[in-house]
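Subject: Interface between my chains keeps coming out wrong

I've been trying for a while to get a sensible model of this assembly. When I model each chain on its own everything looks fine, but I need the whole thing in one frame so I can look at the contacts. Pasting all components below, labels as-is. Any help appreciated, I'm running out of ideas.
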Amino acid sequence: MPDLAAKKKRPLWYNVSLLNLPLPGLVSILHRASGALLFLGLVWFLFLLDMSFASEAGFAHFRAYLAHPLVKVFMLGFLWAYLHHFCAGIRYLFLDMDRGVDLPAARASAYAVLAVSLALTVLLGTKLW
Amino acid sequence: MVERTVVGAHYGLRGWLAQRITAVVMVLATLVIVIGIWSAPPLTYAVWKGLFAKWWMGLSLSLFSLAVMLHAWVGVRDILMDYVKPTAIRLTLEVLFLLALAYYTVWALQILWRT
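Reply #2:
Try treating it as a single job with all components included. I did that and got this:
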């Protein structure tokens, strides 16, 4: 008779490396991560918007603040998060409508989401930098 | 053939649908806002304030703020349901995040309509 207790104790090893995921899986987890990041960033965006409208001095402060290299790096991160969430979200809207659900199409659109959001981040990032 | 009647409160469906409708609203609002900022002359304080005082910018940003609140609430709730198993902690976090989102929405609308 097999020893059930010993069987249960067998070590499990899951490879949770993001790069080991199929492409649609990578887009999916990044969609979740970017959404969480954007939620956490909300308070900062509102703070900045508030500052920029407050007064002439506030606006000058806002521009100087945004010119700081560290702030720019963070902004670039948030820009990517927004663009990825935006593009992946549009992909999910189509998948929800049963468009592009077969594997080759889903893989191609997942690749497109990653590529387009990264390309737009570089494009808009260099423009805003 | 078995006719099955789907019963339940449909809260899940409502949230799911709200998330998708708000997503479409935000896509459209994003395009209006980006084009608005892009086509503005060099940004000075007066230009910046004038831009956000335009009715279509105000409308887009207000809709965007309300949409973010609903959209983020569904997303945050999904994430908490997936990763935070102890009910007491999850419920506490849900209340905190909901209050934060409500506060952000009021704050956003206040910023937008003050100008």
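Reply #3:
Confirming on my end. Helices of chain B lie at 11-38, 45-53, 55-83, 87-114.
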